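Session log. Operator J.P. requested a structure for one protein chain; no other inputs attached. Running the standard single-chain path with C-alpha cell output.
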Amino acid sequence: MALRFRDVGRIGITLAAFVVSCSNDDGGGGGTAGSSGGGMVGAGTSSGGTNSGGTSSGGTSSSGSSAGGAGSAAGGASASGSSAGGSASGAATGGGGASAGTGGGSAGNGGSGGGKSKTTFFVTSDTRTTGKLGSLEMSDKRCQDLAVAAGIGDHTFHAYLSTSTVDAKSRIGSGPWHNAKGVLIAQDLTALHSPTLKGDHTLFIDEKGQEINGQWNSSPMEDNEHDILTGTKADGTKAAATCKDWTSDDANDKGQVGHSDGMGPGMATTGTYSSWNAAHEGGSCANTEQAGGAGRIYCFAID
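Structure written below.
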C-alpha cells in the first residue's frame, strides 16, 4: 500500500520521539545511580558510568552521549579530609583531602606546649633524724631531687635555710610562690615575711600535696612533724641557732624551727607558735624528733 508523503513524515517524527525518550530514561537513571553510589557525581552521568570509591569511571551513555561527569567524587573524600584536619585541597582526589587532614592533626600536636609547672614551694616529704644537713648546697640538691621526682624539676629550688653568714630570704628568689595544689603562699618577699602570714597545715604542704602531721590533727608527739628547720628569724634573717651552719648533730646544739601548721601544744596560736619560720629553737641537733620535728625543710623556687 502506497504511503503518502505526509504519512511518511509523521512516522519519522514518531520514531525520533521514541528514541529520545528511551535515551533519556536510560541515561538519566544511570546518572542518578552514579550519584547515589558515589556521593557527588557530575550532572548528566550516563548509565555507562560506574562509581568506584567516589569517582566516576567514565560516564558515557550507551547512545554515545557524553556524561559530563569525569565528575570527581573528591567532594566526599575531601569532606572527610576537611573533618579530620581543617580543609581539603580543592577538588583533588580523596587522597589529597586525607593528606590535608593529617597536616591539620600535626599542627594541633605542635601547639601543645605550655609554661613551667605551677608548684614553686613545698615542705620536703622526706625526713632527717638530725640537724646535720651537710651544707646549703646539699640542702638545695635535696629540694631539687624531690622536685624532679614530683615532676616539677623545670624550676630551680633552694632550701629556706640561714647560716651564720647567709640570710634565708636572700637565697629564694622574689616570688610569687604557690604550693602543690596551686594555692598562693606569698606574692613576694615582703608578703612572705609579713606578720599576717601564719603557719597553716593546708598551705604548708609537701611536693606531693600531702599535709604535714602536727598539732592541727592532734598527732601524738612521736608523729608530730610540724617543726621545720630554718635557722631563721621571723623577718627572714639569720638566727643564732643553725646547728652550726647545719654541720652539727651534737645534742648541745640547736636549730631554729617554724611551725608548718602554725600551732603549739593544744592547738595554741599565741605568741610565736603561729610562726611558719621562727616558732622556737628545736630540741637538739642530735634528734629533731624531740620537740615535734622530723628534719624537714622548706623549698622555694628561685625562678
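Operator note: The chain has two domains: 1-34, 121-301.
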